[in-house]
Amino acid sequence: MDCCTVVEDLRVERGNIEDYRRLSRYHYRGERLGPYSDIFVLRCGGRLWLASHTEVAGVIVYTMPSCGLQLRNAATGDLFVGLDRGTKMSVVNESVRCIGRVIIEPRFRGLGLATRLVRETMPLAGAAIVESLAVMGFVHPFFEKAGMKVYQGAESRRCVQMKEAFSLVGIEEEELIDAEAVQKKIESLGKEESEFIEFEMREFLRGYGNRRTERRGYERMRFVLERINFRPVYYIWRNPEFQRATER
Q1: What is the pLDDT of residues 10-56, one digit of tens each?
Q2: CATH (domain of 71)
Q3: Engineering a disulfide at 15: which of 39, 86, 134, 240 sits with its beta carbon 3.0 to 4.6 angstroms away?
Q4: Residue 138 above 90 pLDDT?
């Protein structure tokens, strides 16, 4: 079957938890889902079902939002700021839905179906705002292609400081993706530089409990690099139907 035939034989429908479980093994976060509000699927029909022996080609899960999210405040101009906790929780739950999973069955990837699934189901979620939160390294361009706007979180002061410390001993930011290579470079430093970077790493790890006293080595370095490269990315879509309703 060619791409056009595949697309023609797929339809977006409301799904259920069993549809999600059919594809959950293909998502890096596994099957455990937690509370959800809506599930939609790309259902195979006609010739496509006969050819693939697959009922569901893709699934998207909408979950309830977190009450407090700093990047949401930035993206909405502090729309939910200033409310008491009870009111805020009620308003956020009524106004916002979060995209928790988007999974495309491997045989159907590369056809733009993730973008289609997001774009066609956001208006069906029944909320004024649809959002999703990702981490650098797991950023999905199909959110933007589907019409969502992206906001990137600022680096924390201590992450910037740790990167500057690495730079001072000759390890630049583009190198901070390979824990094994960075650890080997650290082990080759002279006494003064080695003591300096060890002090800075322990200070960086101060907020991570027992990690501060963990022995030097690859595992500790991997943990540090994962934390300094962590930058949340927030996606938001405003439902134009809700906006028009408020303008009437």
Answers
A1: 999 999 999 999 999 988 776 678 889 999 999 987 665 545 557 89
A2: 3.40.630.30
A3: 39
A4: no
pTM to 2 decimal places: 0.74
* DSSP code at position 79: T
Q: Is 139 found in the same domain as 28? A: yes
Domain that holds residue 35: 3-153+231-247
- Assess whether 80 and 138 both reside in one domain: yes
**64 with 143, same domain?**
yes
- Same domain? For 9 and 80 the reply is yes
Long-range contacts of 115-120 (CB under 8 A, 24+ apart): 115/142, 115/145, 115/146, 116/7, 116/12, 116/42, 116/146, 117/12, 117/40, 117/42, 117/58, 117/59, 117/60, 118/60, 118/142, 118/143, 118/146, 118/148, 119/145, 119/146, 119/147, 120/12, 120/40
For the chain, the domain total comes to 2
Within this chain, do residues 100 and 18 fall inside the same structural domain, yes or no? yes
pLDDT value of residue 153: 77
Cα 114 → chain centroid: 14
For 163, the 3-state DSSP assignment is helix
Encode pLDDT of 173-226 as tens digits: 999 989 999 999 999 999 999 999 999 999 999 888 777 778 889 999 999 998
